[in-house]
Every structure is written in C-alpha cells, then in structure tokens.
Design brief:
It is a single chain. The chain is an alpha+beta fold. It folds into 2 domains: 2-69 and 279-298, Arc Repressor Mutant, subunit A (Orthogonal Bundle), CATH 1.10.10; 83-276, no CATH class. The chain has helices at 2-13, 21-26, 35-44, 46-49, 68-93, 129-147, 169-177, 184-192, 197-200, 218-230, 233-255, 276-291, and strands at 31-32, 52-55, 58-61, 98-104, 118-124, 151-158, 179-182, 263-264, 268-270, 310-311. The longest helix has 26 residues, at 68-93. It is elongated and about 65 Å long. The model is unreliable at 296-308 (pLDDT under 50).
Amino acid sequence: MDEAVLRTVLYADIFDYPLKPGEIHHYLMEYTATPEIVQAALENSTWLADRVTRVNGYVTLKDRATIGPIRDERQRRSAALWPFARRWAYTVGCLPFVRMVGLTGALAVNNSPPEDDIDLLIVTAPGRVWLARALAVGLVYLARWLDGVVLCPNYVLAQTALAQDKRDLFTAHDLAQMVPIVGHPVYDELRAANPWLAHYLPHAHQPLQHERDLAPRGLGRLVQRTGEWLLSGKFGDRLETWERERKLRKFASAAQSPASAAQLDAEHVKGHFDDHGHSILKKFHERLKHWSTDETERTDEYPQRNLSVKSAQSVD
C-alpha cells in the first residue's frame, strides 16, 4: 500500500504536480483501497514519512516541497483557459461526422504551463477520420485569430477503433485524465473498450472534473447535419481518400522517425511524431530506481494475462 502511494506521487512529480490526498486515491496505481486507508497511510506510515511530506494540503516528495506554488499558479492559468476550451471543443463537436470531443493534456488536470495548448481527442464517424480532422485544423487557425489560443487536435480516431493498441501507464493516465466535453455516450464507449486501464488505475473510473455534455444544438446541429449530407456518399469517400493519401505523403518522413509514436491509417490520425510517453515512462522508472520501490523491474507494457490488482484487503 505504502509503495503504491509513493509510486502515484512519483509519477505526478514528473509534471510538477503535487497531489491532494483524494487525488492520490483517485490515481492510486495498481492497488485498490478506500480513501480512508490511503489517508491512514499518509498519516501513520513511517516509511512514507521518510519519503513524502504535506505542505498546504499537497503531498510531495520530501525534496520537492517547493512545487506547491507551481501548481497553484498553473491552476489559475488553467481557470482562465477553460472558457476558451469549452467554446472551441463545442465548435469542433459541431463539425460534420464528429461524435466526441475530449480535452486531454495538462489543462485536463488544471496544470497548464505558460502558453499551453488546448489538446483535443476527437472521435468521428467511421470512414471520415481524415476529413473531420481537416475541418478541425481549419478551426485551429480561427481559434488563434479570434481568441489567441492554440487548439491541438492531436488524436482523431473512428468510433469503430476505440480500443487502444498501446497499453501502458502513460496512455492509461492520458485516457483517465481526459475530460469529455461533447459526446458523453461515446466517451462511455471509449472507456468500456479499454478495460485494461483499470489495471493501472483501478479507481479512476471517471475523470475528476465533470463537464456537462455540450452536444451540438440549434445552429450547430444544423451545420453538422447539413455538412454530413453534403459530404456523405461517394463524394465524401473520394475527399476522405484524397485527404488521407495527401497527408500520409506529407507525414511519411516524420512517421518513420525512431522517436515517433504516430498512428496514421484509415481509422486513426495520431500525430505523435515525438514519443512524449516514452520519455515520461523513462523518467518514472528512473524515479522508481532512485526511491528503491519494488517496482523497478516492471515493464511499460500492460500484461495481457494473469493480471490482478492488489488490494488493501488482501495484502498484509
């Protein structure tokens, strides 16, 4: 139990993100326990007391007690960015063939650094991934011009491709932290299609921040329906194929880079040409080694068989 708490704090520390006790419970890694048991460990464990400290309501590593103000400042910055995020996520949700828009990245946990992007995960109707992305990219320029904010629709996938191939701690956190803005029923489908996530984060069934579903309505719904009528059928198929082939040629070199984690096909546009997840997991394992937890030999990939999540009720 104590090591699960420490691992949870260590991962958040990579992002200069000290956690509150309730957040430690929510993101507790590979271990199930009640909030009361987590709180008791924080209060009574001498092993944890040698490694973490509590400052102004946050739990941090002993040598990182000064990062609380960083989170406070980023929270203020995030609060100013959220109205723009809601507005533009709704606008993206009104585009033809868009079925869900979720906010990811630092803003999803109110930890936005200066000049942070508004990162979006978009789910589309089958067969219109590339066309929907092209329309969303048009809104990127409009958002920058009108509001001075940077939209980043960096992951677009079809509703028929919700199950994630990459199953590691970084991906689990990215999905668990995502805040759905448009299309809550499709978000529920996304979570249901990825039951492996519960291995890494067994308590994170829903995002900590809940937003009402900004489903297209009124003029937005009319625009969406009209666009889908115009871009359906063989004409839309030809546009989809043209856009996909054009972008695949453009991205070919970057996608072949050793650092790339991009996924580009008929059902995915994941433009992660610099594998941020790999560097984060590397830093995490370095921290595990430094703090000498019993998890230093764990691999990044999700074990496909014989998995069990430790429980406070079954572990001495």
